[in-house]
Amino acid sequence: MNIPKSSIEKAKRLLSTVLDETPLQYSRRLSTKYDADIYLKREDLTMVRSFKIRGAYYKMSLLTPAQKKKGVVCASAGNHAQGVAYACTQLKVKGVIYMPVTTPNQKVEKVKNFGGKYIEIKLYGNTFDEAKVEAFRYCTTQRATLIHPFDDVDVIAGQGTVGLEIMEQFQLHEGKSDKKPDMVFCCVGGGGLISGVSSYFEHVSPATKVVGSEPEHADCLYQGLHAGRPVTLEKFDTFVDGAAVRTVGANTLAIAKECVESVVVCPVGLVCTSMIDLYQSEGIITEPAGALAIAALELKKEQIKGKSVVCVVSGGNNDLLRYPEILEKSLVYRGLKHYFLIEFAQKPGQLRDFLNHALGKNDDIVLFEYLKKTNKERGPALVGLELKKKEDLSPLLTKMDKLGLSYKKITSDDLVFNLLV
Fold it and tell me: What are the structural domains, with CATH classification, of the chain?
């Protein structure tokens, strides 16, 4: 199964009347780092700062007058909601938008701004999937048209215009009409973007490998491909909110089976590191899902050497209040920040010995919590350490052992870890 090339071209013609093309930019830093020619498709530069406007607007433009009169409804973790809200204003259609209560405030406010008097926002459930159930119920009772964020062939065709633009812009960059990218990396939530993009390349350049990138514990497409059917994830994490979908779409899974070369699952810390690098090096602000395609390069670095590669920067709607957590997760992932429970003898000089004989000259204490218990000989302290480089951990542990300290390194499997990171 795939989306017909003619459907994607039709979507492009319609969208070109209301949306500007997003640029395809060569990344010198990433190209040097991975010994490849890396291009970034800047979907974070659309008016709603994500690719979602494409599918939402195209789908709504196809509605009949009767359907428009009854209104639309959608469920979204944020970006699709903005696309629907914008389309509601432009097409003068009333819409009800369900969003999880965990949606970042920045996204909720932008939905309000785009939709104005034409939309009503309902915050419901903790995840996209819970909001989706309520949106489906509203759709049935009110006979409104559902604008699905990914599992709709018209929405997928709209997202497929990203692939069409990539091909045309890549050939302009290369100065050759027969030049085609070797690989295209897309983020994956429910699979609408990668289904549309891979469908287009299946028609015009089957040799181009389309690779999906999903966050760990939200890898519904990866699990679905391995199971051969849509899988509902039990262990589920919503940190990468723009890609936090528990169950992949039936249509998107069917298309991915035919058109997607592979799907990689990215650690959240790697995604955060990619976000920080994009901001510090290129000044590009992405949301976690927006950096998924770039993060996947690290996991495919041997396969992309010498290749021409396009990464879709899928979205830039990030709340600034999230950056401390993003930085923290990046430091932990890179092995630069560690947390310990250390048992100290309750007598003078213990902390001094730890500082003088265990810590290296570049090691920094970033957390220290200790409460002296007068009726005990020993007491635990919660200690957070930031290292200059990850190789400094082994000497630190060796010196702690020589001091005879009893300690436990806190890992992501420990319940207390979630209180720290």
Answer: 5-47+160-329 (3.40.50.1100), 52-146 (3.40.50.1100), 336-420 (3.30.70.260)
